[in-house]
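Components:
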Amino acid sequence: MGLQQTLKALSDPIRREILSMLRKGSLSAGEITERFPVTGASISRHLSVLKDADLIRDNRQGKYIFYEINTSVLEEAMLWMASLKGDPDNDQK
Amino acid sequence: MGLQQTLKALSDPIRREILSMLRKGSLSAGEITERFPVTGASISRHLSVLKDADLIRDNRQGKYIFYEINTSVLEEAMLWMASLKGDPDNDQK
DNA sequence: TTAACATTTAGCCTAAATGTTAAACGTATT
DNA sequence: AATACGTTTAACATTTAGGCTAAATGTTAA
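Structure:
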């Protein structure tokens, strides 16, 4: 985990779009796949990248696997960006 | 430009470290290179990625080229992340 | 203008990322 | 248990990224 994994996961447009979709509520892998012009296998791998980065969580319900967003991990990335804007004499690492 | 280029540029640890270094003031390409275990040519390419993303600006002074950070472009990335955390019914796209 | 130095660009190589199809897996239904 | 359905995993092809060395470019100084 960590900043590296977070930013890497966010650097792909499909993965960002998936996160945007999940903002409105959880969706199954199939529902997510429907909205992209790539195969389910590709989306599945994108989902696993997002999951490894802890940007999404999954929970199975019967034969469906539902994905939901987890934004807590964005905190670190936002703090890092904010620190870049800040005065280096004042505060953080 | 745009979010894609910004996040792509930020997804590499060397490029992030370069930005952190530049927080404290501008540095020449050579000074930046000294601090990494890779060749000047590699750093030069990293600098061009950061520059294309408008995360840094350069200005030549004699035979040196000095780089400085430009944080304004981080705004968009931070806003995007913030929007992921927000209520989709309330506000933005 | 030649030499020296700082930096970038080009060409090549390897590794990582992304896409595809086909096979495997997990669950529900019959 | 067999089939069907949703999803993931494996194997492979292609593209992209990052590193290196060598050549090119820009600038200063002799």
